[in-house]
Write a structure and sequence with these properties.
Elements (H helix, E strand, L loop, with lengths): L5 E12 L18 E6 L6 E4 L17 E8 H13 L4 E8 L4 E2 L2 E2 L2 E9 L10 E10 L8 E11 L2 E6 L8 E6 L2 E12 L18 H9 L9 E2 L2 E7 L4 E9 L1 E2 L13 E9 L2 E12 L6 E8 L8 E9 L4 E6 L37 E7 L9 E5 L6 H20 L20
Antiparallel strand pairs: 1-4, 1-10, 2-3, 2-5, 5-8, 6-7, 9-10, 11-12, 11-24, 12-13, 13-15, 14-17, 15-16, 16-18, 18-19, 19-20, 20-21, 22-23, 23-24
InterPro entries: DUF1005
Organism: Acer yangbiense
Protein name: Formin-like protein 18
Length: 441
């Protein structure tokens, strides 16, 4: 089946030039002491914010060796149709940017930043599903213009085609659902999932659906997992295997480090997270592709914290692709997007895609496994106690075979199951997740 059309609208290469006054004045912003930020708004989407760096007056443009992205809006076919309808019956759709001096945040409910000026960039999104368009690239005057003394704001606004495969679980992952590919109004089954619960008394027993695997795969679980055992407050032994329509296993997610309550508490802590290993078949065995860690955040956020890292072959350290928090109450989107600070108002703050976790070298191109760029995937996650049927989007550029797509589906199942694994241990889980929970103290 064909992928679904998506458009990626990005705002980047921000910069600000402010004329230096010959005489000191309170109203003049001094670049060295006054930080700037902006709020970026597209109607129908959450507002996004970003830092605006100062550019020395003698520089012609921001000193960027490559495109830097501050905000990203992901538009599906429905979004494009709504925006097109608005442009027909109302004024033209515009991207609106407000530039502020001062630090971000609020004090006593009042914005701490001072508005410097506003910029509006008209958008014509027709045809952007198949062809890239640049709506603005250069400087715009902002603020009061008195004899050429206005500030100048630099930005790049462009839209690019970003087709994606869309998959939908037809049930909760722990209920061993089918997974459909969605294309418009067409739903076609492509995978089946098998959830299994290993007996807590046998550490080496694998999921039934993986019993036929070569014995070499078990060494991956022991090398990446943890042998810790604590009676009572722990959740372990979960695994989910993704099969293609012929019944062959094409990906798996296995809980390799139990989710254990911290001493004296009912929660999984950040300092001692549980983890999953995402596996792919290769050379007649299972090979690790990625590792997902999850925990329960403390404080007002009270969310599901997570970190996902890629495990390249023969690499001493993983590559962190995503690290963020999802609301335990409302849920949210697990997202791997390596081209922006956030997407659609999300809180994702991915680490540099090309850097091993143990390395301080963040130079692009220096790490030999830089295969993931831009939007990679996203998966919807419901809050605690809500029926969750994950919707998964995967960029076409990152899918070259069935196993590629299946790995992302297994990862989506793992992050969804982590919401349950990180529930407070004072709360009961559904029987599909822990049939023996009544025996635990």
């Amino acid at each position: 089946m064909d992928p679904c059309p998506f458009v990626r609208l990005t705002v980047g290469n921000l910069g600000l030039k402010i004329p230096v006054a010959t005489k000191p004045a309170r109203s003049v912003v001094h670049p060295s002491s006054s930080p700037c930020f902006c709020k970026i708004k597209l109607k129908g989407f959450p507002v996004q914010t970003g830092v605006v760096p100062f550019v020395p007056p003698e520089n012609p443009s921001p000193d960027n060796q490559q495109q830097t992205v501050t905000a990203t809006f992901h538009l599906n076919k429905s979004d494009l149709e709504k925006l097109a309808a608005k442009s027909i019956f109302a004024k033209k759709i515009c991207l609106k940017i407000s530039i502020y001096t001062g630090r971000r945040g609020t004090t006593c409910g009042v914005n701490s930043g001072k508005l410097l000026g506003k910029v509006s960039v008209p958008l014509d999104l027709a045809g952007t599903e198949s062809k890239a368009s640049v709506f603005h690239n250069g400087w715009i005057c902002v603020g009061k213009d008195t004899k050429g003394s206005s500030a100048q704001f630099h930005l790049n606004v462009k839209a690019e085609p970003d087709p994606r495969f869309v998959f939908q679980f037809d049930g909760e992952p722990e209920c061993s659902p089918q997974v459909f590919q969605i294309q418009g109004n067409i739903k076609q089954p492509v995978f089946t999932c098998k959830f299994s619960f290993r007996n807590t008394g046998d550490r080496n027993q694998r999921s039934r659906s993986l019993q036929s695997e070569p014995s070499g795969a078990r060494s991956w679980l022991s090398s990446f997992g943890s042998e810790r055992e604590r009676p009572g407050k722990e959740r372990k032994g979960w695994s989910i295997t993704v099969h293609d329509l012929s019944g062959s296993p094409v990906a798996a997610a296995s809980m390799v480090t139990p989710f254990v309550a911290s001493p004296g508490s009912d929660r999984v802590s950040r300092s001692n997270p549980g983890s999953w290993l995402i596996l792919r078949p290769g050379d007649d065995t299972w090979k690790p592709w990625g590792r997902l860690e999850a925990w329960r955040e403390r404080g007002a956020s009270d969310g599901l914290g997570y970190r996902f890292e890629l495990i390249p072959d023969s690499a001493a350290a993983g590559i962190v692709l995503a690290e963020s928090t999802l609301s335990s109450n409302k849920g949210g989107k697990f997202c791997i997007d390596l081209g922006a600070n956030s997407g659609n108002g999300g809180r994702a703050t991915p680490s540099p895609a090309c850097s091993p976790r143990s390395s301080g070298d963040y130079g692009y191109g220096l790490w030999p496994y830089c295969m993931y760029r831009g939007f990679v995937m996203s998966a919807g996650v419901e809050g605690e106690g809500k029926c969750s049927k994950p919707n998964v989007e995967v960029s076409v550029q990152h899918v070259s075979c069935t196993e590629d797509a299946a790995a992302f589906v297994a990862l989506a199942a793992a992050i969804d199951l982590s919401m349950d694994a990180c529930r407070l241990f004072s709360q009961r889980l559904r029987k599909e997740l822990y049939p023996n929970q009544d025996l635990l103290g």
